[in-house]
Amino acid sequence: MSKLMENENGDIYIDNEVIAQFAGHAALDCFGIVGMASLSVKDGLAKLLKGDNVSRGVSVKLDDDGLDINFHIIVAYGVNIRTVVDNLISTVKYQVEDYTNMKVNKINVYVEGVRVID
Known about the structure:
elongated; alpha+beta; 5-stranded mixed sheet; single chain; 28% helix; two-stranded antiparallel ribbon
């Protein structure tokens, strides 16, 4: 649970799962992102996550300096991966900092697969 702020009436906390879900949906709005990925421990294959499951492809860690966010993504075939990842990082960093009023220290992106989009 991340402590967001305190005032004379009490404290405000945001669960890391809420931040992960928000960050996952922000990432899905970026061009070239097909979805979040979940790695199967059994066979080592990446599984495409949809809907409310997107937060399973995102992990959030809070320390004294701010947030670290890890993404496991699947990108569209034929896109420039560096451009897509740069866009994801800048978009998510801005939106999460604006949404939570917390500093995002680091965003790590793991490209787990490529999918052809019809």
